[in-house]
Q: What sequence folds into this?
């Protein structure tokens, strides 16, 4: 039998056991410093530090922790990982997981972004937690809708629904890998998207550039004939918007869609 060493979880003191059991009973598997103070006020810092050292909890960032489940085994926090969406849900309020992260979650993109994108009405700098970058995209209140709830690792997480995800990515392509990524998503999954809802979302968000980009993408992808009715009655805004904010501001002006086409969309490249 191997001797018990520092690599394994150690026994719990009374306060440590009381804190862990109380948090678990109240389903606070992800918790912060204030949660600890409300349970073991007066010894909060020492208790948390002991639990981190003994590998019963995992420190996510300063003041934010996760209980390590018993079924992880005796190595505790060393063998434990928390889903980035679960962590992201605890970093800012209000929030929803969006853009490239939601695009991948809904199966529209097979690219797994190394950054987790979070929409919020607040200004917040990007941060890194457990070697994952969390980027906060500030949106106005009128764009903060189209949210659904999913469950990951027993935690409720808010995420943009499928149609709002497409609308958000057309609104800010720079947060989904560029216009080519969102164009490919639309090309391969038109039956999973309600383009009339995306039109409604664009009008509610107050950005007709969403419809300019959508129309151009559909035309360049050979899908416009099927969905041309979506644009009936819409007068696109004057001026030329950039097709892709990530590409240089040069290219050809498209009068039909009011776009500066600064990147080519070629569906044949997506087939391989």
A:
């Amino acid at each position: 039998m191997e001797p018990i060493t520092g690599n394994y979880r150690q026994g719990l003191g009374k306060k440590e056991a009381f804190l862990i059991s109380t948090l678990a009973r109240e389903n606070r598997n992800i918790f912060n410093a204030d949660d600890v103070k409300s349970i073991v006020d007066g010894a909060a810092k020492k208790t948390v530090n002991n639990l981190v050292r003994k590998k019963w909890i995992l420190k996510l960032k300063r003041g934010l922790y996760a209980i390590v489940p018993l079924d992880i085994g005796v190595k505790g926090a060393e063998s434990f990982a928390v889903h980035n969406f679960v962590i992201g849900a605890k970093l800012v309020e209000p929030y929803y997981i969006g853009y490239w992260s939601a695009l991948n979650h809904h199966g529209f993109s097979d690219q797994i972004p190394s950054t987790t994108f979070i929409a919020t009405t607040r200004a917040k700098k990007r941060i890194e937690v457990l070697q994952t970058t969390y980027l906060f995209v500030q949106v106005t209140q009128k764009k903060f809708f189209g949210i659904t709830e999913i469950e990951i690792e027993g935690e409720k997480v808010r995420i943009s629904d499928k149609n709002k995800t497409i609308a958000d990515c057309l609104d800010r392509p720079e947060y989904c890998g560029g216009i080519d990524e969102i164009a490919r998503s639309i090309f391969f999954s038109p039956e999973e998207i309600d383009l009339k809802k995306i039109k409604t979302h664009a009008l509610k968000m107050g950005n007709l550039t969403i419809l300019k980009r959508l129309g151009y993408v559909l035309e360049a992808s050979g899908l416009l004939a099927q969905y041309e009715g979506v644009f009936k009655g819409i007068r696109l805004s004057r001026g030329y918007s950039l097709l892709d904010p990530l590409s240089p501001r040069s290219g050809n002006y498209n009068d039909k869609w009011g776009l500066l086409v600064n990147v080519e969309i070629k569906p044949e490249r997506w087939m391989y």
About this structure: The two ends are 53 Å apart (CA to CA). Residues 1-6 have pLDDT under 50 and may be disordered. Residues 14-25 form the longest helix (12 residues). The CA atoms of residues 7 and 75 lie 6 Å apart.
